[in-house]
Amino acid sequence: MEVITMESQAFRELQSKINLIAKFVTAIESKQAEQPEDGWVDSYEVCTFLKISDKTLQRLRTAGAVSFSRIRGKNFYRISEIQRLLQENVIRRSDEHLQDLIKNHQLHVNKDEILRRTNNGLDVFRHYVPGQWRVGRNFLNPLYEDRKASCNIYFDRRGGCYRMKDFGNDAYSGDCFDTVGKLKNLNCGNPKDFVGILEIINHDLHLGLSGDDGCASLVVSISPKPIREFKPNPAPQPENPKKSK
Q1: Closest-CA residue to 46 (of 38, 54, 35)
Q2: pLDDT of residue 224
Q3: What are the backbone angles phi and psi of residue 15, rounded to the nearest 5°?
Q4: Which distant-in-sequence residues (6+ apart) come within 8 Å of 107 by Cβ?
Q5: Arithmetic mean of pLDDT, 81-87
Q6: Which residues of 70-97 are buried (b: 16+ CB within 10 A; e: fewer)?
Q7: Cβ neighbours of residue 62 closer than 8 Å, sequence gap 6 or more
């Protein structure tokens, strides 16, 4: 192994430059976190929270009224582009719908990040569901007085995560977030409760997604790299009529 030596003054200067770079990167990340309009949302999120149909969104894409990026057959839109559609009344929705889209997108991103760090939710089940159960095998649910081995933890290929199915008590069926919500008496359907569930999992499994100082720090900024970007078509220019001979 090669050992490199340097003078103390040179080392201090190098360390100072590294600290400046670290502060610059932190400042950029903080600035990005404060600008949710730079984020990306998919078609499902746009249709769900703006309450428009898939056909309406498709018609806007076909007409060139909205710019989007296509990644592996899935369409993504900048939140700033959706904001433009609302401001220009292309989509007649209130600013409240846009805020719901941004807020729920942040929760969606946090959920995906937790699944990524917990083996698609399997580690969460192993943490909260005690016993020597095995994936795909029926077992007695240890979370209540179960008398028949009819509980099963399996991988849901369509959802891309592990889920629990309890045929004896369907209240315990669902993904890992539903299970933690059940244990902590929190409702996944309530945005405030769902943030609480995310924080509990992050804290108990030491995922390091935040400093445990609130839901805002849990937001993970993910911007898909556009493979092909489609921008709104410019208004067609009228052609000069041709003179007939």
Answers
A1: 54
A2: 44
A3: -65, -40
A4: 191, 194, 195, 198
A5: 88
A6: eeeeebbbbbebbbbbbeeeebebeeeb
A7: none
